[in-house]
Amino acid sequence: MIICSKCNKELQDDAQFCDNCGTAVAKTEVNAELAVAVKTEESTETPVSVKTKVNAGTDSPAKKKSFLVPALIGAGALVLLVLLGVFFVGNLGGISSKKKIAPRGLYIKDKELHVSDFSKKGVTELTSNFVNAEDGFDVMDYVGYDMSSAVHFSKNGNILFYPEKINDSEYTLYCKDISKSKKEPIKIDSGVSIEYKFYVSDDNNIVTYVKNDSIYQYNMNKKDKVKIDSGLRDPGSFYVEDNGKKIFYVKEGGTLYFKKAGKDKEKIDSDIDRVITADYKKNKVVGVIYLKDDKLYKKEEGKEKEKIATDVTDIISEFKGGEFYYTKEEKGDSGVLMDYVEDDMKEQDADIEDPGDEPKYPSLLDYGSVAAYQKAVDEYNEAYDEYLKAEDKYEAKRDRDTLRQELKEEEISNRGKTLYYYDGKKENKVSDNFGTLESRTYKKPILVFSVSESKERKKVKLSKIESIYDVYDELGYDYLSTSSGKIAIAIGDKVSDIEGENIKTATISREGNHLYFVTNIKKNKNYGDLYEVKVKNGKLEKAKLYDEDVCYEMIGVSGDSQVLYFKDYKNSEGTLYINKKEVDEDVYSYGMLGNYSSKEIFYYIDYNSDKDKGSLRVYNGKKAKTIAEDVNDFEVFDDGSVMYLYDYSINKNKGDLNYYKNGKNKQVDEDVTAIFHYMDYSPE
User: Fold this and answer.
1) Half-sphere exposure (Cβ direction) of 273: Cα atoms closer than 13 Å
2) What is the pTM of this model?
3) What is the H or E stretch that residue 381 is in?
4) pLDDT above 70 for 443
């Protein structure tokens, strides 16, 4: 089993997306500061905003290079999203770092990690064995692999925690004051697990990390480490709060523990399924909420555990005020699986009989001549072929008879999902017709979701299946519940339906004040009418037409004030609009990057997927201009400056690294292999 990096649900080993929250499967969390994201019709809906490339579709071309971070080279943003455990859908400003890190560029040159503060003498080579060559690993072996969880900058950007001697399971963690290039780095520990994110306190003194399935804390002032405990169950079983002073973790066997700084560990419960979230009061962690045997429990410090809900199936989203949404599965009328199968083989099978014993091979002694015997052999061969065909048909019929019996014995019941809201004190029923999560905010408990409806489905033909599991696959998990093409919005425990039919791409703004969706989709087309619904004081205004002929696959909201969308969209390119204003033509939808702080949008035009390069442009809210041509990759910083890699040779894996700020370009370095994108985040 693997664990979802967002909601910590246990998933099958081959899962690509979490069936609970929709997050793409990965082993790490992402740090976020960005502001732009886009939704696709096919994506599972979990809104997140991240400081990285914006993916506006599901068919991004694979990148030929990147380094240790998912497809961060060039514009192939889809791979990035998948490997980082994030899929951009809807809300683009959902997560934002409170830290405003000074511009610091990380990149790979000569197989080693470098950092630049973009001053005249601001380049420092950090490592001497970045990827552990002693173990036979090479830098390019890690193309597309996410290592962003192994990097952390201090608020002022001067203190950097970074990895060295990376292999497929661990690395050595170092810390360096990069404002003092000659000062030697501090080695924190070797063998740090690559599967777990490490945590650094705000004062950069306490580092909490995992090695060999054990939790450690390193004190930078004392330069020593303390082992907290061992035997962690999995990466989804490790939670650090309050600057490392509070740690929740689950050990093998499902025992949940709480460790508070200066005190012995406390056993909270055993045989739990997973931790859902920390329990907050006034934005302070006071305990933990977890799932056990389909029951939700809350355990606050100094109090007994409290059961707060039963028969829980999924946790939809949680908030730092201690509120969260979850679903229960409601069962309806019972039946058997055969009720959903069309027996299109019934008449044919009725005519199939047991062929009996196989024909006997003729004996030469029974015939007076060789010719007569040969004729008998030929007749036997023909009869035997017919027998084999008849036997195959009969065996297939017997298999279908067995399947028919299994289908008649497989009991099922009509089931739908009921949405509930826990307000910190009690559960509240919200909706009987929860379909899928479309979008959400993070500060306030607001959800946008599709409305399901029960209706008779087209039956699966018996001739197309081989087992009862094929029927479930054909019908889907929610086999009696289908989307109605309608959406609703929940604000706390209050729910309102949104006007419109066959709605696509519903997304809510960062602060929850604007809802956008596309409806009136043209037949066999990817565009329709974009509508806006304003939300004021927890109430919805009437939906108003915002724009026409908008591609429903490409809708995003930057912060709470900018809606981004495309028209005339084809082959990953189209005309970009922001707030009804045409921004640019031939905009490549993959690789867009926003900056919530400055509201600038960076993107490519005239992108060549074969050569992995295009013209890098920036839109400042008034006009768009070109930064550079033949750009392969870029990174945007909090102050609106950008580092970019251009004139890149795919064959040599080298290019020139430049820095752009306030309309001026300057070279940072040359013969650079890749930009190392770091995503150090904390939800607001």
Assistant:
1) 21
2) 0.73
3) helix 370-409
4) yes
